[in-house]
Design goal:
Blueprint lengths: L2 H9 E4 L2 E4 L1 E4 L3 H8 L2 E3 L5 E5 L2 E10 L4 E2 L2 E2 H20 L5 E7 L6 H16 L2 H12 L8 E7 L6 E3 L8 E3 L6 H9 L5 E6 L4 E6 L2 H10 L13 E7 L7
Parallel strand pairs: 3-14, 6-10, 10-13
Antiparallel strand pairs: 1-2, 4-5, 5-6, 7-8, 9-15, 11-12, 13-14
């Protein structure tokens, strides 16, 4: 599945008029939002480009989560794959003696704030180092001056069950979604990254795209909107259960 298909499948909604995204914008006007999301096409280096009314935008997608990382990437992803394989094997074995089977598992690695920040920063820096390459590739493909091609990131939080905080001034409000830009060191990194136009956060649990322009006011608007005042993040611990039932055919 290409990146455009992934974004459309996971984040678009449909009504009688067609498909649309649930979007929150900070520092972005309606025209720029339209250019960013109305016409998306798969590309390579960057993953996506938008071409609307002759304006080319480059969008590079990356994922991060709040679990530790090993030499082969996210521990969350690797453990999840192993759990699925283990559950399938257990169910297959138990089906020899039972007509229905339930299997329970949980991740050994625990989501935490430090891994959340570190994983985002690593991914951000890796992709930021390639922005000149992205601009050059788009420039050669579409005959547009590279300086006139804005580059945006689409950063997708893949933490199981999401990343949250509770505002100490509004505890009755309940859990609010977290964003890496809440942290001063990441905000500083973002604001000084002058080759980047902005970032789109894709919330894998709430299915919302949050667009943030690269400027101080937009970041402050994001924090104010979610009532973030420096609270620690929290993460739910996923318990994975799988149930299988034998289906018997009825002979007439």
């Amino acid at each position: 599945m290409n990146e455009v298909a992934h974004i459309l499948e996971h984040y678009s909604n449909r009504n009688e008029k067609g498909s649309f995204f649930s979007v929150a914008t900070f520092g972005v006007d309606s025209n720029e939002r339209e250019v960013l999301l109305r016409e998306l096409y798969p590309f390579e280096r960057p993953d996506i480009y938008s071409n609307y009314n002759g304006k080319i935008y480059g969008l590079e997608h990356f994922e991060y989560d709040a679990h530790g990382r090993g030499k082969k990437g996210s521990l969350q992803r690797r453990e999840n794959i192993k759990i699925k394989q283990s559950v399938e094997e257990e169910i297959k074995e138990k089906f020899k003696d039972h007509d229905s089977v339930t299997s329970f598992r949980e991740l050994k690695s625990k989501a935490n704030e430090e891994d959340y920040k570190a994983n985002f920063v690593d991914s951000f820096k890796t992709h930021y180092s390639k922005i000149d390459e992205y601009k050059d590739h788009l420039s050669k493909t579409f005959g547009v001056d590279s300086e006139d091609i804005p580059i945006w990131f689409i950063a997708e939080d893949m933490t199981m069950l999401g990343s949250y905080f509770v505002c100490r001034n509004k505890p009755k409000q309940g859990a609010e979604p977290a964003f890496p830009l809440f942290f001063p060191e990441i905000e500083k990194l973002f604001l000084k990254s002058k080759k980047l136009e902005g970032i789109i956060f894709a919330d894998n649990c709430n299915k919302v795209l949050t667009i943030v322009k690269r400027n101080k006011k937009a970041v402050e608007m994001l924090k104010k909107h979610h009532y973030y005042f420096g609270e620690s993040l929290f993460f739910f611990e996923p318990k994975i259960a799988s149930t299988a039932i034998k289906i018997f055919s009825v002979k007439e």
